[in-house]
Predict the 3D structure of the following.
Amino acid sequence: MSFIKKLRVKERIGLSKDLLYELIFTKRSLQALGISLVFSFLIIQFSVPQFYVSSTLREAESPTDQQNIVVGGAAQAILGRASANTGGNFESFRSNMHSYALAQRMWDQGWGSRIYGNGDLDAEYFNAIPKNHKIGDKLAAFFLGYDLFKFYSAHDLQSYIQGSFNPSKPLGSSNIIVSTMTPDKDFAITFMNSLIIETDKYAKERLIQKSKEIIVSTYEQLATSKNSSIASALAGTINSEYFKIANLENDMPYHIYIIDPPHSSEYPVTPNIMAIIFSNAIIFFFLSIFISFIQKNKEDLW
Amino acid sequence: MVNEYFDLVTYGGTLNYYLFELANFSALAFLVLILYKLDFININSFIVWIGIFFSPLLINYFIISPWLFGDQFEYAGEVMSLKATGRSIDNIALMNSKYISPITLSVKILGLIPLPNYMTVTSLAFANKLILFITFLWFKRFFSNENEVLLYFLIPSLVLYSSMALRDTVIIVISIVFIINLIRRKYILPVLLLLPLFFLKIQMFAILFVYILSHVIFQAHKSKNLFGLFICAFVASGFIFEENILEILNLYRLAFAAEAFVAFDGSISYNAWNLYGQDDRVTLELNSILEAVFKAILNLPVLLLIPMPWNWSNIFYPLQSIESCLLIYLYFKLSIEKDMFKNNEFILLTFILIVGLSIYALIMANEGTFVRYRFSLYYPFLLALLYLCRQPNNINKLSKKKLPN
């Protein structure tokens, strides 16, 4: 009984009623809910919907590497050209995707024009798209005496790719996911598709070029070499590099296979309309109660 | 509302972030207002708790970057994933294969709090605040002066750690409930609480397990003779299980040293330790219990006073340094009040606290981490001492009643 007495149930029921009628069931609460709806509507109107665009890729096994070890390993070791493949295909794929060389290739295809200009694929146009600098940047450049870049370049495209397209590899999976958040899903899908294909193509072309260079320099070594075992190892390296070129000069993917081509989420990831409306309703409702409370309890509070 | 895309959108510092978290604040503030109107708390508690509930909005993104305590994203990611899909996030799912991960367990506990939104990294901080508030409501029942209890819930570290999406608040709250119930001779709840504590923080489990053993088996809180018997058993078991104890201590010493390791080339943590830290391994290893005791005695004052001025690297460090001294002062002040140092329960409580702190002193490496660990251990014992001080007659009566002549 003393426990119930301690709870002062009757007294607290009375206080609850007061609380309901004084602070909660008031005209102000209704007004607050109305204002919250207007405020939510404004926030939603000014928010830019962001879609999630992603593509799933699978790391491809590279037969050229295995061949390289079998045939050309010894000579490469002698020539000090053995390449350590520490990060695997994923790391190479990522560094190629974020490289300036790839950005330059994409730029040459006119992607810079689609991002920063009107989409005109004429090189004369997209190499001269003017950059709009902020007034603060212009003032800083004027006072400190340095020049700002007048036109967009492949460096800007590289920054855009690095900032927006992030390849990731989930733990324990051999799949690579390339993803981005964008308000323009159609453009992002097209660009991501081109970016993935171009990254792989660039990797292949770079390796073909590298193999060609190795062949040229190995031939030079072979011409001057008098030791038969070294000559044989060098010949092995040349064979291996020709084999590599033969493997790479086809339309097969090098680093990756595309499992899921780039696609967009059906609904935008952000803004979360329900959460915005719900949160605003709670905030404004509490605010109305709090104002009523302060008005009625000024003396206690001070 | 749950942010099912937390891995894609964290809303960091945006208008939406403040909107979602203000809604969480509003819900908690509304609860405090109701409790004030129903006369459960006084006006001071009302004002202070409104402020405490507002603090998460001021800390993450506003005063500090949440990446300063980067683990928060793992906790937040886990709670969103569990709420949205019922599955853990990838890197935690790998850890969960054998035992439940402490992150999963803590977010399962915190996720039970019915907040309006679990949308950002700070949402869990509001769950932390609410369980702390519930603890306050429960704890203040034992005191006639609510304002005094309120002051102990205003300690800066408590406000800071409970404003983050970390598990420290859960551990602190469990420890407070454990110790107070143990002192009140209500043993069932503490025994049950040992289980979550085992998964949440094994060090805390070990310390409180020794405490419950000393209470239930040795009755060391009842007389100085029984306390002496407990000490003998404690020392004897230290020597009997020397090898196992040293193995565990060395494992933790090396793990914490490796985690805090910075190599000459700028590389850090376990990778750097594996490459360059092997020379330190021998110097860190403890070879006997006596060596462990000696090193613990040497390190204990350092642990109690960290962060030292020469290690201050952010705004919180000087504050925490002052706070360390204040907390030690508070413990001493309460100890000498009403001859509390003669109380058997106090002697046992302080002994367990010193044992716990000594363990932390032995494995101490990274200052930031151990300031947090020290607080999680020290604070529940400080509140327990406050409880003892304000109810000395009841406790003594209980002790006398249960003691045979």
